[in-house]
Design brief:
Layout (H helix, E strand, L loop, with lengths): L2 E4 L11 E5 L6 E3 L6 H10 L4 H17 L3 E3 L2 H12 L4 E6 L6 H10 L7 E3 L5 H8 L8 E6 L2 H11 L4 E5 L10
Parallel strand pairs: 1-8, 2-5, 2-7, 5-6, 7-8
Antiparallel strand pairs: 3-4
Length: 183
């Protein structure tokens, strides 16, 4: 299964009976107050003093504080609204699958609401393998002709490929500077 690079949701084929699974951070929304490398940079900074586990915990805490005081922005508002319009007018369905911890539910819902993204289920995997997680919950959504997964992380796309093989279409969302010139 090939991973297709895209810079807009409008590049994703539209199907009548598909399950569209979207990542949130740096795919659907981003923050101009801090870089998309902020989390990794913080982990590396803390690793100079602490072990990896403690460094990750501190980086998560710092990242969450940044998110709380930041304003979300669409990564591709027009493309996302277009694909949602199709999903809502077809036999397709969608939800978000985020690496965020469930403790971030309140701020995540607030930021999605600020972007006028409503009535969408969000699954919080808290750093777990997204492919394994989706495999464990997918049956609750019924039968679909296609599963479409969109994420900015190559690791998550590979995890999905390893879990589903040819039974998922993978789209690597690449941020265009014209769309998110805040990075």
């Amino acid at each position: 299964m090939m991973i297709t690079k895209i810079t807009s949701f409008s590049s994703i084929p539209l199907f009548q009976k598909a399950l569209y699974v979207f990542d949130i951070d740096d795919t659907v929304m981003g923050y101009k107050e801090f870089s998309h490398t902020y989390f990794g940079d913080k982990i590396n900074e803390y690793k100079k003093t602490y072990d990896e586990h403690v460094s990750i915990d501190f980086a998560i805490s710092d990242w969450m504080e940044q998110v709380k005081k930041s304003t979300p922005h669409h990564m591709d508002k027009e493309g996302f609204e277009s694909i949602l319009k199709h999903i809502n007018s077809s036999d397709s369905n969608h939800f978000f699958l985020t690496a965020r911890n469930p403790n971030f539910r309140s701020i995540t819902e607030k930021h999605l609401e600020q972007l006028n993204i409503r009535s969408t289920q969000v699954y919080y995997v808290a750093g777990q393998n997204k492919g394994t997680y989706l495999k464990n919950i997918i049956e609750k959504f019924g039968k679909f002709d296609k599963v479409i997964f969109i994420d900015d992380s190559e690791k998550n796309l590979i995890d999905m490929k390893n879990s589903f093989g040819k039974n998922v279409e993978l789209y690597h969302f690449i941020k265009k500077f014209e769309l998110c010139n805040f990075y």
